[in-house]
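SAMPLE LOG
Freezer: B-3
Tube label: C17
Construct: single chain, 118 aa
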Amino acid sequence: MSKPRFLLDEHVWGGLVDLGQEIDVDVVLVQRQLPTGTDDVLVLAFAAEQKRILLTSNARDFAPLVAEWFLAGREHWGVIIVPGQTDRRLLTQALKNIIRQYDADSFKNTFRFIQDFI
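STRUCTURE (predicted):
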């Protein structure tokens, strides 16, 4: 059973990186891994290659992309939608709940909402 690892998209609160360090969870910012403005297809591909769950506020673009990958038989390690106005305390609690209750494989090829974990 492996711990979930995370990639935070550009508009997700970066404080989760510090939280990850506190609770021994691998959380990285997309802007520290890829050039700013990298195409969403490449962001999802990077997350998949790194076996990371992508946390993003961009449901409009990632929902059809995940469906496209599903139809093409491409695998990824999950996408969790984080609405832009999500309270940081709730986001912190959600991350802790994910780590306590799930392993990385639980998210493979899924598209979920952060509210599922609060």
